[in-house]
Amino acid sequence: MKSRIIYLMIAFCSLSMAVKAQDYSGLNDIALKDKADYSKTEDKVLECSKFILTQPVDTKDPNCKYCMSFIVRWMSGTPDYSFGIDDSVGKLTKSNQLLIGVYMACMNIYVLNNKDKAGDANAVKLNSVSMFLDYCSNPAIKVKPDGELKKALKAKNDNKLKEYLKIN
């Protein structure tokens, strides 16, 4: 009886891992031509953005590349939202250019979860940077903070992120 339970547990774990496995290779086939295309893919953009935040930035996982490519395509053409990345964010990602994609994922998550605040550039920036810094401080992600990133993390930990970002 115990062996059956063990086999059932192994089978269940294997099944749940298989169900969790994701294949984003079809994202390149999604057409983004008109406003309706962008609107109906918002859930997919959100899913891809959340996936990016679960992966180390230097991952070799092709799904990260598919997701990032789709996110960039969507952000570049959506008529419903405007995204801006200023110099302060550039400084945070300067030592690791792959981090800019993570920041873009953070922007999508904030905007799509807070559509009523999507037009407030300061709110988008503050909340996206905060989410980005949470990602960077996660030990499992293995980001090695350098000078500017360390300053930003300290500002966030000291509840002075608004001042660091020069947001009123």
Describe the structure.
The chain contains 9 helices and no strands. The protein has 168 residues and is mainly α. It has one domain. The longest helix is centred in the first third of the chain and has 19 residues, at 2-20. The protein starts with a helix and ends with a helix. The relative contact order is 0.11.
Major beta sheet, specifics? none
Count of helical stretches: 9
Structural class call reads: mainly alpha
Proportion of residues in helical segments:
55-70%
What is the succession of H and E elements? HHHHHHHHH
Question: Tally of extended strands?
Answer: 0
Number of domains: 1
Q: How would you state the average pLDDT, rounded?
A: 87
Coarse shape = globular
Radius of gyration: 19 Å
Write out key terms for the chains shown.
9 helices; mainly alpha; disordered N terminus; 168 residues
Quick take:
The protein is mainly alpha-helical.
Topology:
Layout: H1 2-20, H2 35-40, H3 42-52, H4 62-77, H5 87-93, H6 99-113, H7 121-137, H8 147-157, H9 161-165
Helix pairs in contact: 3-4, 3-6, 4-6, 6-7
